[in-house]
Structures are given as C-alpha cells and as structure tokens.
Amino acid sequence: MKRNLTVLLLSRDAADGREMNRAFSSHSGVSVLMTSDDAEQLFTETMRLRPSAVVINLGHMGEPALKLVQRMKTDCPTTAVICASRDSSPDLILHSLRAGARDFIRLPISEEELNTVVDRTVEFCAQNVADEPKTRGKAIAVFSSKGGCGCSLIATNLALIQNTPTVLVDLNLQSGDLELMLGVRPKFSLADVVENRDRLDDALLASYLTHHSQNVALLAAPIKAESAEDIEPKHIYEVMELLRQRYQTVIVDTPHSFDAATISALDNCDQILVVLTLEIHAIRSTRRALEIFDRLGYSRKKIRLVVNRWSKNVELDQRQVEGFLGDRVLGFIQSDYRAAVNSINLGQPMVLSAPTSKATSDLRQISAKLFDGKVEPAPAGSESKRSFNSIFRRQAPQIEDFGLTAALERANLGEAQ
Ligand SMILES: Nc1ncnc2c1ncn2[C@@H]1O[C@H](COP(=O)(O)OP(=O)(O)O)[C@@H](O)[C@H]1O
Ligand SMILES: [Mg+2]
Q: For residue 177, how far is its CA from the centre of ligand 2 (angstroms)?
C-alpha cells in the first residue's frame, strides 16, 4: 500500500490558503484533501478523515488558532499539526510548539522548508504506524436466505446501537438500499474502494465512506449497478480486512444468496446473524442455509439465529423452531409494522425514530448479547436436530400456531425422504 501524506489546510486569508494549497499540492508525496477557512469544519473533517497532517495558518486567527492546535493534538494525536505564518518571530513559533504543533512553516513557503516539513511528517507517521496496536475489529454479517425477513433493517439498527466506530457495509451489489434506511446520499461506494484498493490509506478509505453520525459510516453499494460487475470475491475479502483494521465494528448487510462475493464476506466475519421469520418458508430455507454453512466449514458458534417480526399471535414454541433448526435462537424482535415502515420512509432507523418501542429494545438486547457475549443458556431439550421428532410428538401444541407445527413436520419428513 502506497503511503502518501494526506493533508488538510486551514487559512482565514484566501490568498494564503491558495499559496499553501499550491505549495503542498506541488509535492509529489502529498495529497491535499481540503482547504478550508473554517476552524470547526477543519476539526470535524480531521476527526473524520484522520489525515497525516493539518496545516493551520495562524495569521488573522489570534488566540483561537492556538486553542485549535491544542484541541487537535489531544483529540487526534495521530495527525501532525503544522503551524504556518508570515510572521516567523521566535515568540510565535514558541507559542505554537508549546500548544502542541509538531512543526512550523513560513509563508510564502520555500521548496526547501516544504521538503523538510514533509520529511519530518513522514517520520512522525511511520512512528505512529509502528506504535499502532495490531487489533482487528469485530465483523458481523446479517444474513437471511429469503428476502423480506428484515436483514437490512436489523443491520442498520445494530450499527446505530454501537458506541464505537462502526462501518456498515451494503453488500447488495445490484440493489443496495441502506442509504435510504440511513437517510444519507453516498457520493462513493464499494466500487470506488475496490477500484482504488492499491493506493488506499486510512484517509482515502474514510473519504469513500458516507458518514451518518459520529460513530457510524456506510460503505454504500455501487451507485451504478454495472460497476458491481468488476467486483471480485477476493476484493470483498480484502476490503473486509481493511475495514476490520480500521473500525472496531463492521456490520455487513448481505444479499439472500450464496454467491461467491457473499461467501467471501461471510468467510471474513466472526459471526453470522441469521434472520428468519416464523413462516414455514423462512424456517425451512433457514435450515437449508445452516446446512450450507456446515458444508462451508463454519462452526455453529459462528452462527446466531434471530427471529424477526415476532408476534404473540404466532406462538410457535421456541423449542420447536430450535429443535427443527438444531440451534438455539439468540433473540426475538417484535413485529412493529408502523415503526418499521416509518423508519424506512423517514430514513431514520427505529432506534432513532421509535426509541421506546419493544422492537427497539429487542434489538438492543440482541446487540448486547452479540457484542458483549451475553448469550443465555439454551432451553432444555433443544440441543439437537435428532430430537426434533420426539419433541414434536411429546408436545402437542397448546395454542393456535396457524398450522406451523404440521408444516414443520411435513418439511422435516419431506427432507428426510
Ligand atoms: N420487526 C419488524 N416489524 C415489522 N416490519 C418489519 C420488521 N422488520 C422488518 N420489517 C419490514 O420488513 C420489510 C423487509 O425488511 P428488510 O430489512 O428490507 O428485509 P431484507 O433486507 O431481509 O430483505 C420492510 O418493509 C420492513 O419494514
Ligand atoms: Mg435488504
């Protein structure tokens, strides 16, 4: 991966801003990502893009400039703060260094000084890379073998529940719709990340994401469906790896198929949240999906089942479903048609638009179990697929189950033959 320095520039004075831009852009090892005259915008973009350096023109700014230097140093310690000024009095240089600047450059910028500052910044960044803990974020795929079970809704809400930097990946390459669910308008997508993967550094990667809130960013599906054709499964694996190196949590909304790109993403996830609804088609195709996961060599610990759109009107016993699927259910999300549809129409995920709803609290519980590892013990008698028939024979349904029990039995017998 090529390591270009990425730089943001701040200057209240427009002519100085142009001069700074000209000088830094002329250096082959530097990419100028933005030139701004607004300190707040510079700070926000620095937090978002994590550039190698910010260059702050102290002219026309006075004391607030030094406060900004201090804030940058504390909140974004991996970015080198470089002060610039036409006034190069020892007093000003001393004050800026005391505030936390790593370097000082005089305006107008001479080529020699520029080279020295760039070399020193490269050294600073190399040291940061050496000091970086080699951690990998947790990756969770949300999958269902049938469309309409609620994968996209669950993936989106789970991302918003996290308090740590989280990226949500829309792997529905031909028909992504997470931007609608988040109410954002992506300018870039997975296709840009894949196309530029050989020159990606942290800042460039971050610039291809669409930021929803402080912690949540979206890696959108390709904006033009045809650009999805160039994306190969190995690219998906590489992109997942890059994201995991940079973000604490990666949540992938997957298509409802076992195509090579999806499997590549599933391979590079710690867990797969398999979503189903209590309909015979969904239950049966979930069982087939679990068999495919077995064949792919995934450990059952990697799989977590979630029942969505649950309603007390369909009280199929949890043990019956677990017995049929041979796995326990991590959680149930209540059906709430109004909250779900409103959230999608408003582009405001349920955790924001219906924070007190039961469905939201169900989602929060599932998130806690997934991310804090709080998994409740399996109910007795649900351990194995083999016990399916005996469980069904022992427990005649006490409640209205809309024929599901019989349908499950038929499904089971049908497959056994
Ligand atoms: N808990 C829920 N209660 C009611 N409706 C839901 C719930 N979860 C999802 N839905 C609805 O189901 C439909 C499909 O959801 P979506 O997330 O797009 O599914 P998928 O991505 O699996 O195809 C949407 O119209 C959504 O409003
Ligand atoms: Mg979807």
A: 7
